[in-house]
C-alpha cells in the first residue's frame, strides 16, 4: 500500500470481487443456462437453442404468472404513489406531533415481509378482522376467507402491499417537498394564487423527478413480488407471479434450471423495457410542459 | 393566533391523522396481542383489550422450538453482514471519493448494476453457484455475497467528498501509512454516514427471506424470517405461537427504529436525492 494507485486497487477489491462473482457472473450464467436443458442432479446437459423460450410461450402457467405480475404492478403502483403523496402532504407542514404520525406511517416498511404476510393471513381469514369490516359496510366476504378465493386473493395481497409500502415512499416525497424553496410559494401567494393552484403549478411539477424515481424503483421491486405470495397462498387461487413461477419450476418442483433461467430472462427483459419506457415517457412529458 | 375556525380545522386534521395512524399500526398491535393469548383461548376480535395475558408462547418457541436458534442465526448473520458492509463500503467509497481517475468507471458500473439487475431473477444461478462452490447450506452462503453493497458505497463516497482532505494530508506528512490514515483519521470522521449505512444494511438483512431460504436447507441454519415462514407450514401450529414468533422478529427492529429513527430516515432519502 505505497503508491496511491495500488492503495486504491486494494481498497476497491472487495467490491470488485462481489460485483463479478455475485452480480455479473450469475447474470451471464443464467443467460447461458436458458439455452440448455440443465437440471438438478443431471451432470450432462444439452444445448436446446430457443426451445425453453418456445415452451414458455405456450406454458399456460407462465402466461398466468405474467398476467398476475402485471395486475400486481399496474394495480398497486398508482395507488401507492398517490396515497404516499397524500400522506406526505398531510404531515409535511409544521404541527405538533407530526413526528409520531410520520414514524407510525413508516413503521410497516421496516417490518419483515414474512411477518406482515403472516399477520395479514390472520386478518384476511374467515371470520377475521377484514371480513368483519366488510360485513360492517354491507359487503359479503368470501366464504373461506379472502386468500381462499380466486376473485379476492391477489387483490387482498395487493392491498396489503400498498398498506405496507406507502410510508416508505411518503418519506421520499417528504424529502422532495422539503427541497422546494418557500420563496416560490410566497411569490405565488403575492400573485394571488390559491392553495390548489399553488399545488398544481408549483408542488406537482417540482415533484415530478421524485415521483419518477418512486415509480421506477417501485416497479422494479413489484415485478419481483414473491415473499408475500409464498407465505400467504403458495401461488394458489390464481396468485402465482413471475418470480414464484421461476422459484417453483427451478427450485421447488421440477428443478429445471434451464427452463427457470429462461423465464427469469423474460422477466428481466420486461423489467428493463418497462423502466426504459417509464423514463422516456416522463421525460417527454417534462419537455412538453 | 388560532381562531375558532382554525381550531376546528386542526381538530379535524388530528382526527383524520389518528384514524390513518390506527390503520397503519393496528396489524402490529394485533400481532402483539395475539402473541400474548393462551393457546386455548379464542382469538376472537373482541379480545384486543380483554382476555388472558401470557408469555408462555414466547417461552415455548425460544425453549423447545427452533426459533431460539433462528434468532441466534439472524443476530450472527446480521452482525457479520453489517460489519462487513461498514468496512468494505467504507473502503470502496473512500477510494471512489479520493482517487477519482480510476474510480468513476467502477462507480458507473456499480450504479448501473444496482439499478438494473433485479436481484430475484438470479436465484437459479445463485443456487447453482453456491452448490458448486460447496457453500450451499453453510453460514458462508448467508454472509459472503452480501458483505458489500453499491448503495452503501455511494453513501460513503458522498460523505467522504464533503470532508476536506487536509486532515489526511497532515497525517501523511507526519509519516502515517495509508492504512492508518484510513482507519484512524478518515473512518472516525465518517461515523454519521456509517451509522446510516449500518442500520440500513442490518434491517435489510434481518428481514430478508428469499436468498436465505433458497441457500440453506438445514434447520440449524435458518434465519428468523425463514424459520417463521416454515413454521406456518406446520399443520399443528396455532396463531398464538405464530404471532409470538413474529413478535420476536419485530421487537429488535422496533427498538432500533425508536433509537435510530433519524439515521433510518436519512438512509431512505439518501438514495432518492441523488437521482
Description:
- The complex is a heterodimer of chains A (289) and B (275).
- Chain A has helices at residues 4-33, 51-58, 60-92, 98-110, 113-123, 129-136, 153-178, 182-190, 195-222, 227-232, 242-252, 257-288.
- Chain A is mainly alpha-helical and 289 residues long.
- Chain A has a single domain (39-288), classed as MetI-like (MetI-like fold).
- Chain B has 275 residues and is an all-alpha fold.
- Chain B is globular, with a radius of gyration of 24 Å.
- Chains A and B meet through helix 1, helix 3, helix 4, helix 5 and helix 7 of A and helix 1, helix 3, helix 4, helix 5 and helix 9 of B.
CATH level-1 class of chain A: Mainly Alpha
Note the run of SSEs of chain A as H and E: HHHHHHHHHHHH
Strand content of chain B: under 5%
- Work out the radius of gyration of chain B: 24 Å
The first-to-last residue Cα distance of chain A is 54 Å
Report the count of strand segments of chain B.
Answer: 0
Biggest interface, chains and residue tallies:
A-B, 89 and 85 residues
Helix content of chain B: over 70%
Output the CATH topology of the largest domain in chain B.
MetI-like fold
Architecture per CATH nomenclature, i.e. the level-2 architecture of chain A: Orthogonal Bundle
> Can you tell me the CATH superfamily of the largest domain in chain B?
MetI-like
Q: Structural class of the secondary structure composition of chain B?
A: mainly alpha
Counted by DSSP, the helix tally of chain B is 14
CATH topology of chain A: MetI-like fold
Give the biggest sheet of chain A. none
Q: What's the number of extended β-strand segments of chain A? A: 0
Q: Pairing-aware structural class of the strands and helices of chain A?
A: mainly alpha
